Amino acid sequence: MTMTGEACIPFTYVLNDRLSILAVDDDPIQREFCAVYLAGPQADVTTAASAEEGLALLETTAFGVALVDVDMPGINGIEMVRRLRADRRFDDLPVMVITGREDVLSIDEAYAAGATSFMCKPVNWRLLGHQIRFMVRAHRALAAA
To answer: Which of 6, 81, 83, 124 has CB 3.0 to 4.6 Å from 113, enough for a Cys bridge?
Structure first.
């Protein structure tokens, strides 16, 4: 039950399909929140503390979606998205950029790099779950068309 007395609807991602999520963020608290709020019966969450670590994981593990922070030391999130989009192996990987930036330039830069979606911090975890579900469904529908 919610505080208003309404029943909570159990959350599912993409029907009953399993989903493997890669969350890349240099902030350990954000990584922990991703692991806690997004993991569930249908979803596994793997976290990476840097773009370099995320790119290395993508070389060895298949993920259904990637969540990428922008401001990280070393390779930033925008450059990570550019590298993913330059590699045909990741054409089917939906990528959401999640950042504390909400200026027009940051939004445009993320989409120009190849982001599938964009979300501002602080993260509304319930909304993020729904946006992931929509992004994956839309990406799969486009690939099937």
So the answer is: 81
The string of pLDDT tens digits covering residues 49-60 is 999 999 999 999
> How far, in Å, are 1, 9, 10, 117, 131 from residue 67 at the CA level?
29, 24, 22, 9, 11
Alpha-helix runs per DSSP H in the chain: 28-38, 51-60, 77-86, 104-113, 125-144
Amino acid letter, residue 97: V
Instruction: Please indicate, yes or no, if residue 1 is contained in any of the structural domains.
Output: no
Residue identified by tokens 């099937």 is: 144
Classify residue 71: in a domain, yes or no: yes
Greatest Cα pair distance, the chain, in angstroms, is 49
Binning the chain into helix, strand and coil, the percentages to the nearest 5 are 45, 20, 35
Q: What is the pTM of this model?
A: 0.87
Question: Which pLDDT value is given to residue 142?
Answer: 82
Q: What CATH code is carried by the domain that includes residue 71?
A: 3.40.50.2300
